[in-house]
Amino acid sequence: MKILVVEDEKQLREIIKESLQKDRFVVETANDAASASDKLEAYSYDCVLLDIMLPDGNGLDILRKIKQDGRKENVIIISAKDAIDDKINGLDLGADDYLAKPFHLAELSARIRSVARRNNHGGDTTVRIGNLEICPDSREVSVDGKLLDLSRKEYDILEYFINRRGRLINKLTLAESVWGDHIDMADNFDFIYAHIKNLRKKLNEAGSGIEIKSVYGLGYKMEENP
């Protein structure tokens, strides 16, 4: 899961980034409204952690633009301003959650996972597709009740497809979402092919009912076998 942290306070921004990376999130950061807008223009994210008070603007304006553009990012407002009006305005504009500073980092991670469950899986803690079961909180995957031994990136790729099953996934978008924004500067995407090949092999050997299919010249699509 890729997170964009929009926070102008450098120390807090780095603490959040380090903590979320330890929880196996892919984390990008922006220190003001302009850089946040640039990143949102160029890349996609699963969740945006958005401060309200920024040195060159208001985080609510960024939230408003996200919603006007019909983007799918989950948005959690993180702000020292805990006035009820700020909370109401943010939620009315479409924010998925609100967390007032100071907050515990463990709670922040829990809120991100909770929002993802609610928006991607109807609040379920376990996702089932045929005989495959995935638990995002523990990052465990099983087929017919038997755990699969997946690498971190193999799991990240599988979760990305599960959250977008049936949709065509562009190779560049997949790379950016699993490895981070600047992977678009890579010379080639052979590393993606290698990870998907290994993931396919493990799913096939376990007898999984899902398949990640290549769409020539475009990317990949995950489908459930009849």
Number of strands: 14
Question: Distance N terminus to C terminus?
Answer: 28 Å
% residues in beta strands: 15-25%
| Secondary structure: helix percent | 40-55%
From the 3D structure, determine the CATH topology of the largest domain: Rossmann fold
Order of helices and strands: EHEHEEEHEHEHEEEEHEHHEE
Characterization of the model:
The protein has 226 residues and is of the alpha/beta class. It folds into 2 domains: 2-121, 3-Layer(aba) Sandwich (Rossmann fold); 127-224, Arc Repressor Mutant, subunit A, CATH 1.10.10. Helix content is 42%, strand content 24%.
Short overview:
42% of the residues lie in helices and 24% in strands. It is of the alpha/beta class and 226 residues long.
Task: Record keyword descriptors for this entry.
Rossmann fold, single chain, four-stranded antiparallel β-sheet, five-stranded parallel β-sheet, alpha/beta, Arc Repressor Mutant, subunit A
Sequence-ordered SSE layout with sheet pairings:
Blueprint: E1 2-6, H1 10-22, E2 26-30, H2 33-42, E3 47-50, E4 53-54, E5 57-58, H3 59-68, E6 74-79, H4 84-92, E7 97-100, H5 105-121, E8 127-129, E9 132-135, E10 140-143, E11 146-147, H6 152-162, E12 169-170, H7 171-179, H8 190-205, E13 210-215, E14 219-224
Helix pairs in contact: 6-7, 6-8
